[in-house]
Amino acid sequence: MRVLFAGTPAVAVPSLNALVEAGFDVVAVLTRPDAPVGRKRVLTPSPVAARAVELGIEVIHAARVDAGATARISGVNPDVAAIVAYGGLVPPAALAVPRYGWVNLHFSLLPAWRGAAPVQRAVMAGDDVTGAVTFLLEEGLDTGPVFGSLTESVGPEDTAGELLERLSRSGAVLLAQTLSAIEAGKAAPQPQSGEVSLAPKLTLEDGHLNWNHPALAIGRQARGVTPEPGAWTVLDGQRVKLEPVRLRPDVTHLSPGALSLDGKSVLVGTGSHAVELTRIQPAGKKMMAAADWARGMASLESVVFE
Q1: What pLDDT score was predicted for residue 101?
Q2: Torsion over CA: 8, 158, 178, 202 (sign)
Q3: Is 260:267 a contact under the CB 8 Å cutoff?
Q4: Sheet of 288-289, strand order
Q5: Under a CB-based contact definition with an 8 Å cutoff, are residues 108 and 119 in contact?
Q6: Cβ atoms 243, 226 nearer than 8 A
Q7: Residues 120, 80: contact at Cβ < 8 Å?
Q8: How far apart are CA 120 and CA 130, in angstroms?
Q9: For residues 139 and 95, is the Cβ–Cβ distance under 8 A?
């Protein structure tokens, strides 16, 4: 079966590898154009593009699936398209090209968390279980019928990045199994059922910790935005980046945003009990252990996060 693979970030690479290893004829890869990376803003191929080149697969670069991209997709004559975090909408003209349609690997248990940031939103919401599904792509936002699914427990310390990495590996197996079922004529997608929730793309503001919120919510928020866009707070008018915090229910005397040093532990007050900072990156400096940062402060008790 001739497969077009559409994807862009590193989490899509395991799926590309899985399809190649399963023996599918991946005739081309659709990915977003090279993007500037690092402080020097060097134009760099997407992880999927880089892997496709290593595998000797044709690469179609497209910021969006316009008429030109659709023509190139038609030109490789795919039987099916597999899409994993491509980063753009697929219009009806392109949806109609492969005879078996487009199969999307989505990292949630649809219809929960439809949208661009399902794993991040699941962590921020405190979900105990999430998963991944393969479904038939339609014009609607993640509304198509589901081929298959898997579940994944969300650990109390899991960041969105860690959870997504696990799902990218297990989801790759699910995607290969789904395409095998389609090829064998045994696939029977079922309509989605259950409560719908949305997972819009994260913005920088989603990482701004509000110390008036309960500690549990702050902990979930910090883990959900790690590694991107990252948790942060404001100190002396400047943005300070933070890695995920630890809950400290034994400390209840600090007011929201107030800091204190307990041995080597740097504590911050919240709307409930305190949290413990792990690592911090002050403006213009590198990420460092919170205790090292605290030693450089003249008086930690006078510091208040906003």
Answers
A1: 98
A2: negative
A3: yes
A4: 231-235, 238-242, 279-281, 288-289
A5: yes
A6: yes
A7: no
A8: 11
A9: yes
152-189 residues labelled b (16+ CB within 10 A) or e (exposed): bebeeebbbbbbbebbbebbbebbbbbbbbbeeeebeb
Averaged over successive runs of 10 residues, the pLDDT of the chain (306 residues) comes to 97 98 98 84 92 97 96 97 95 97 98 97 97 96 97 97 98 98 96 96 97 97 97 94 96 93 90 96 91 80 81
For position 42, what pLDDT does the model report?
81
Nearest 5°: phi and psi at 198? -110, 145
What would the two tokens of residue 177 be? 């199994």
**Contact (CB, 8 A) for 148 and 158:** no
Q: Six-digit token pair at 211? A: 């110390």
Amino acid at 37: V
Question: CA dihedral defined by 45, 49, 51, 52, rounded to 10 degrees?
Answer: -150
SS3 assignment for 153-186: ECCCCCCHHHHHHHHHHHHHHHHHHHHHHHHCCC
Q: What letter does residue 201 receive in the DSSP assignment?
A: P
Q: DSSP of 222-251, one letter per residue?
A: HHHTTTTT-EEEEETTEEEEEPPPEEETT-
Handedness of CA 227, 228, 231, 234 (dihedral sign): positive
Q: Which two tokens stand for residue 7?
A: 């994807």
What DSSP letter does each residue of 52-94 carry, written as one string? HHHHT--EEE-SS--HHHHHHHHHT--SEEEEES--S---HHH
Dihedral-angle region of residue 53 (phi above 0 means left; psi in -120 to 50 means alpha; beta otherwise) = alpha
pLDDT at 41: 83
Q: How many residues does the chain have?
A: 306
Kindly state the tokens that stand for 242: 């933070």
User: Which helix (H) or strand (E) is 124 found in, with range?
Assistant: helix 118-125
Number of other CB atoms surrounding residue 50 within 10 Å: 16
